Amino acid sequence: MKKKVRIAFILFTLISFSILFLYNQSQDQTDIYQQIAGDALIQKAISDRIAIIIYIFAMVTVCILYLVYEFYRVMYHELADRMELLDASRNDLQTAYDSVAMFFIEIDDQMTIININNAFSEYIGRMKNSIIGQRLQSVLDFRENSISVITAKIRESFERNRSERTEIDEAGKVYEAFIYPMNAATDRSKRALLILNNVTTLRATERQMLQDNKMIAVGQLAAGVAHEIRNPLGIIRNYCYILKNSSEYDRAIIEKAIVSIEKAVDKSGRIIDNLLDFSRISSNVRETVNLSKFLQAIIALEQNVLDRKNVRAAVDCDEDIEMVTAAEALEIILINLIINASDAMPQGGDIEICATQNEDTIQILVSDTGTGIPEDNLGSIFNPFFTTKEKRDGSGLGLYIVYNETEKLGGKIEVESKPGKGTVFTLTFPQQRSEENEQ
Questions:
Q1: DSSP of 146-204
Q2: Co-location of 163 and 217 in the same domain
Q3: Using CA atoms, how far apart are residues 67 and 93, in angstroms rounded to an integer?
Q4: Three-class SS of residue 101?
Q5: Separation of alpha carbons 261 and 275, rounded Å
Q6: Domain-ending residue, one of 81, 110, 136
Q7: Is position 90 within any domain?
Q8: Same domain for 304 and 269
Q9: pTM
Q10: Using an 8 Å Cβ cutoff, are 345 and 308 in contact?
Q11: pLDDT tens, 75-99?
């Protein structure tokens, strides 16, 4: 069709120009005859000119129509090509969408499912067409409490127009949920992409890695703890000897011995309790802690190691600061930072832990006067198994675990260091009220 139209237009153009050329030649001769002939010939010449003007107008109209035809034909083919590319792109996107093992669920602000991927369809055990158009609550086979958490985060994402993240424990499986608001056209309802990722194995691996790291730290504490427990045991032994050899009437000596033995037993008990608390597997349960007492307890747990390395530790924190957090996770974060700081000061030095509270955040600074971190290494210190220590002295997982645990608590960690002048780690956590945690 396209070829036929072009041939017809070319033939029409050639014929038109031929007619115009012949008319122009005949018009030259007519001008000569007009000087001789009468009114009849003049009248015929005028009619011929009117006819040729009409013909020229028709020719111009045909040219314009052909140009319009060509324009729309090109536009149509461009649009068809773009639609083809769009279809191909959409098919590629759907293929990638379906190839992901995570659950992809596209929903609107009424919690109606718009689209899903194959992984979610297979998990539910239903065809896509039977799921699309259904309410999320009626399709997702989770407990009511888990559904409530997810839907609350989705509504929050719609209201704030920002991505949200949460983690739920569903029948022994841990799912990480991400909600991403999607830019919708003005004639469409708001939409969001819900991604559910089964991270049960990953979390178990992380917890095992965390536990292994804690056991390494326990090993580092062992020598100091053994020394600390030996002192109270020596006191108990000495006073037991005094009790055996003292007169039953010497009440002052007996009472002093009993008091000293009780103090020694209490001290040993506290050391053992701290060690057991630290070695226990971490949980995600959040609780309210007095930050000043919490920091002091961590320093007390590490005191023997610090004394052995001639490291002085100080805490600067208001006594009324309270923090809602997973205490065991925060404990492993701070202990790892303290151990790293003490290792960076082989000749001794100072560690200061400074905590401040703002309206929305709590900030904890752990600073030391150690050897510092070279600038080239600053970008790698949070990578797993990266270490500048000898293999027997470090696994390279300490700061990696610190980074992961900080992220899980919703915080962020930053580091500033100058070789020879020390290092400062800054932990920033969102301030959370206890009633929010209960919800």
A1: HHHHHHHHHHHHHHHTS-EEEEEEETTEEEEEEEEEE---TTS--EEEEEEEE-HHHHH
A2: no
A3: 38
A4: coil
A5: 21
A6: 81
A7: no
A8: no
A9: 0.45
A10: no
A11: 887 888 788 777 777 777 777 777 7
